[in-house]
Each structure stands twice: as C-alpha cells, then as structure tokens.
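Worked example

This section walks through a single chain of length 183. The input is the sequence exactly as stored; nothing has been trimmed or padded.
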Amino acid sequence: MDIIVIIGGLLLIVIYAVSLYNKLIRLNIQVDEAFAQIEVQLKRRADLIPNLVETVKGYAAHERETFEKVVAARAKSTSATGVQGVAEADNMLTQALRGLLAVAEAYPDLKASTNFMQLQEELSTTENKVAFARQFYNDSVRTLNTAVKAIPTNLFVSIAKVNEREFYEIEDPTERGVPKVSF
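Given that input, the structure is written out below as tokens.
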C-alpha cells in the first residue's frame, strides 16, 4: 500500500513538472507568434507606402525630400530584425509618414482624391492593426516574463531553454507625450 502511495505521489510530481515545462514552451511560442504578427502588419504598411507616395507625388512633385525620407524609412523597416531594430525602424517610418501626410494636407485636390482617401483609410486601418499587434506582443511578453521569474516555473526555465523577452517600446519621446488638443 505504501509503494502505491509513493508511486502515485511521484507520478503526480512528474505530471506537474511536465505541465510547467509545457506552459513555458507554450508561452515562448506565443511570444514568437505575437512578434511575427507585428512584422506581418508592418509589412502590410510597407506595401501600402509606395502607392501612397506615388499618389502624393502626382500632386506635390517638389516635395522630394519628404518622399526620400519615406522611401529610406520604408527600406530600413523591411530589413530590420529583432525587437529593438524593428521598433526603431517602425518609429522612423511613422515619423516619415507623418511628414508625408502633412504634405498632403497642403493640397486640397489631393485630400479630395478618392485614391488618396482610400489609401489613407487603408493606412489608418493598418496602423490600428499594428497597435493591436504591439499590445498583444507586450501582453504575451509580460505573461512569459512573469512565468520565467515566478516559482515554480522558474525551476524549469533552463530545461525549456526559455528566457525573458524584451518589450516592444516606443523610443521616440514625442510619442509618449500627451497630445495637445485645441478647438
């Protein structure tokens, strides 16, 4: 009878250990998937940019410097790797797009163009998807990092070969400030 209780206790410990190991693996895969979703949405945004630039170029051909900034930022965003590199390229592209859209504001005919309005709407939708993907990634990283540091899952971190991950953070201090609203 004692042997059955000991074997049952050991079996429960093994099952518990396997479940903790699997939890770490699942969380690690979830973080990888979340980062891949950020890259998918950033790629979608990068694919929209040439059409947007060409549309604006037709109306504002003398704004060459703005177009060059957007093209350079797009090129950097498509070749960036790692969380930090992607975040930096993303910030650079966001700033360049703001410049491009500011140029568009100066041209009423452009703002009224159906093609431009559709591209701007598509870009806006994509920006929302990028923001959601960043949020999901950071939520996944938080959950993984908590599991990596918490007892008892931290006992299985080296076995599962799982490490803490870095958050997707905005480096541009102007992005963190409170927006100014005036009527």
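What to look for: The two ends are 81 Å apart (CA to CA).
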